[in-house]
Amino acid sequence: MATRHAHARWEGSLKEGKGQVDFANGLFKGAYSFASRFENGKGTNPEELLGAAHASCFAMALSLMLGKAGFTPDFVDATAQVTIAEHDGGFRITRSQLRCEAKVPGIDEAAFRKHAEAAKAGCPVSQALAGTEITLEARLLEASPSRSHK
Fold first, then answer.
1. Mean local confidence (pLDDT), 133-145
2. CA distance 13 to 34
3. Domain regions of the chain by residue span
């Protein structure tokens, strides 16, 4: 199986310091700081990066589930809002709220929701977040009539 690599460097104290994160063989590089994490400062933060991982993993998992059921989605559009909160004198990621819109020809709302819930539970990032509340709002958009499932 694949092993992926990411790198982070932090310089200085927590509040005045700054960091740089990179991954994908340098394809993505981003600055982060106390202000970008806990305030509205410029840059990224671990929660955004985790949200990107969760949203992309969920979208792929839902596409897989739909495909196994004989449906080919036109698209699955997913976002994740990751919440960090104070906890026992420190901080804890408390929630990842997934939101999804998808256009899936030939599927009904009940079947779509069933597959979306299965994807939420089954995607590897959801599993890695065990112990964190994960919610899902999934909305099926009207599909164009020309495409149908397999």
1. 86
2. 9
3. 6-38, 46-141
Query: Do 139 and 104 meet the contact criterion of CB atoms below 8 Å apart?
Result: no
Residue 148 has pLDDT above 50, yes or no: no
pTM score: 0.89
Alpha carbon distance 120, 106 (integer Å) = 21
CATH 3.30.300.20 matches 46-141: yes
Token couple for 91: 């901080």
* DSSP codes, 67-136: HHTT---SEEEEEEEEEEEEETTEEEEEEEEEEEEEE-TT--HHHHHHHHHHHHHHSHHHHHTTTSEEEE
